[in-house]
Amino acid sequence: MSLKSTAAVLLAKRDVRRMKKWASDPIRVQQRTFDTLSTKLKVTQYGRDLKLPNQLTMSDWAAAVPLATYEDLKPYVERVRSGERDVLYPGLPKYFCTTSGTTSGSKYIPMTEEGIKAQVQAARNALLAYMYQSGNKSFVDGKMIFLQGSPVTEKNNGIETGRLSGIVAHHVPNYLQKNRLPSWETNCISEWEAKIDAIVEETKDQDLRLVSGIPPWVQMYFEKLLAKTGKKTIREVFPNLSVFAHGGVNFDPYRSVFNNLIGGEIDSIETYPASEGFIAFQDDQDVEGMLLNLEGGIFYEFIPADELHNENPSRLTLGQVKMGVNYAIVLNTASGLWGYVIGDLVQFTSVSPYRIVVSGRIAHFISAFGEHVIAQEVESAIAETAAKHALTISEFHVAPLVKPENGKPRHQWFIEADDELSEAFASDLDAAVRSKNKYYDDLVKGNVLQRLEVVKAPRGTFNIYMESIGKLGGQNKLPRLANDRSIADQLKV
Questions:
Q1: pLDDT in tens, 413-432
Q2: Which of 296, 329, 349 is the last residue of a domain?
Q3: 405-426 core/surface letters (b: 16 or more CB in 10 A; e: else)
């Protein structure tokens, strides 16, 4: 065992003890976070505008601090961008993370010194928890690749601005820098396909042991690597590859694709990072769900999904949630986001400790006919059906077909796969969705909707679409479903 791996094991033991300590006392930890954040809010311009009471408790919070989207906070964000201090959080943020917005163009998410430290700590926690439980420490002695956005930032009024993954690249610990790929120069390439090509050249002869990135972009890297080397599996290229760390999208629909590319199963570590905060990470390989990050300077609230359209929905604190219920997650952060509706739906798989799975996006659903099918339902349905038929599904998108040229209205599934998609597959997929969503089942039973239609998409269809809208690569993710045909009608199928 090398000196580096020995030190990593000792570090893992220490960090896991610390994680278990805060995970075992979640309500007290959340109260402490609340007390700190509420005190900070009171001295900001936003807090003064809200006319907060002197004594602010958790039970008062929902009445005192409104729910907010980025559009709601944008006027305050713009004041911070202009250099004004103490607007949303005391002082100025260290960074602005840029991300795509739906109605307001680019979003600028503030990140303070506390925020970036929490991001780095959570990423480290995920790796160390895996090492502690699995006993796999060999990956620290080989090369690690992190597929991420460009680390190039721009300074405006003293605040560095760039992509989250690129900002995090500036904070990789020194002990990992020598093992880290790709090179700084390659990481700065902005055009994604050119960047992947350069990464392939840099890594094809290396002893790669850990890969980290969003699944569709790691998949592209693996495919280009095999094409370049002429090898049949990634294990032939990297015999010591043992860990895949991922986040951003549900990995289950990709699992069979990755197993085929790699040449067998590989350990995976799921994470839930966002520009707004690092929300959760996998701490146990043997249980479902990710450990809710209570060390990240976030006071969490949860809105039951069936109340989202209410004028005054319930805003539950951690001690009030139940397992198996879809909640919209609300963040109050040490970077100055307050009552912030991040747009994700989560379910708790455990409340001792608190573990979650991401069940979908508030904006990503199909309810053109009143069915309200969400991402979790379509992702689990296609994973189950693909496994039943031994198919490899690369990517997919679901959209409503409201006015078909023939037949009744239906859901249309665009599926990129290496194999033929039979009628039996389509029938089983429909049955799987019906088993997960009673409203959809009722509509099919009632002959309001026709059974779903499967359209096989040629290889590369979704990459072509993402490139056409300037969102190929990085942290950009294809929406798995939509309530309109804004994506479906642009697919070249």
A1: 999 998 899 999 999 999 99
A2: 296
A3: eeeebbbbbbbbbeeebeeebb
What is d(CA 213, CA 479) in angstroms, rounded to the nearest whole number? Answer: 17
17 burial level (CB within 10 Å; 0-12, 13-18, 19+)? exposed
What is the extent of the structural domain holding 401?
365-490
How many residues are there in the chain?
493
CATH code for position 471? 3.30.300
- Residues of the chain with pLDDT > 90: what percent? 65
pTM, full prediction = 0.80
Structure-token match 């629909």, residue found: 253
Task: Please give the structure tokens belonging to residue 165.
Answer: 């993954």
pLDDT per residue as tens digits for the range 435-471: 998 889 988 987 889 999 999 999 899 999 998 888 7
Output the pLDDT for position 470.
Answer: 81
3-state secondary structure of 474: coil
Residue 184 has pLDDT above 60, yes or no: yes
Cβ contacts of 37 within 8 Å, gap of 6 or more: 297, 299, 332, 333, 334
Residue 385 near residue 254, CB atoms below 8 Å: no
Whole-number Å distance between alpha carbons of 402 and 390: 31
Q: Which amino acid belongs to residue 27? A: I
Domain edge (last residue) among 252, 277, 296: 296
Which residues lie across from 155 on neighbouring strands? 160
- In the three-class reduction of DSSP (H, G, I as helix; E, B as strand; rest coil), residue 368 is classed as coil
* 58 CB-contact burial (10 Å; exposed 0-12 / middle 13-18 / buried 19+): middle
Please tell me the predicted confidence (pLDDT) of residue 343. 87
